[in-house]
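ok so I'm stuck.
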Amino acid sequence: MPIVAITREMGSLGTFIAKEAARRLAYEFVRQDITRDAAREYEVLEEHLVGAVEERPGLFEVLTHSARRYQEFVAVEVLEAAQREGVVIVGRWSTFLLRGIRHAVRVRVCAPLETRIVRIMERLGVDRAEALRRIRANDEGVRARVRQVFEAEWSDPLLYDLSLNTDQVSLEAGVAQLLGLVAAPEFQPTEASRQELRDRALTARVRAALRTNRETARLEVGVRVERGRVTLAGTLFRDDELAAALRVARGVEGVTAVASEVQIVRMPVR
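replied:
not stuck anymore, here's the structure
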């Protein structure tokens, strides 16, 4: 079955469209489960995971490793959920993490700012200023994170298979368009697309394992996976760093072999 991944602006009705689509398809609806499961598996605070994907980066965050570590944890859970197929995943970068997977239908739901302000005022019982503050904080945070991690513009329609403007498109019509894509031949899974997703999920698992191990947490090692075979790449400075990275990668469930393209750079002796 195809996977549905949805990103939505606050007040755009995207969550309602996602829930209705999941109901009609008899699909699993996945949203908060992602950060909840990641927090449990990796023993971190869920609020830190949410912040790492939805809140504007701090001024000096580019110099730290904590946000990247949290982002790797979220990627693991999104890609693991996607492997179950028959799922509608909302947010958590799912539309970006599943880009290039043939059987993933990636949707963006949006609406004009004034329309969203009115909806948030009604839904949350807040005044206009508070509704605007919340919308801007959410928009700016998600946009900044997407630029930071994926070097992309969140609102670019070319990044999605379907963009829905709910100022003109009703919930019913939006769901109908989404279901039409889910049924389309070009979005049906193939063995190749499933293998690509398995490899992408295993890549995320290996990266997360490297981030959680004390010996490898701060190493910048590239990870490539093909049919369960892992290749590590990059530059390290010591043989024991490479040995640790290889050991951690081999310990990840699903890895069948590990190879190295890592270059060891020797520091000059003075």
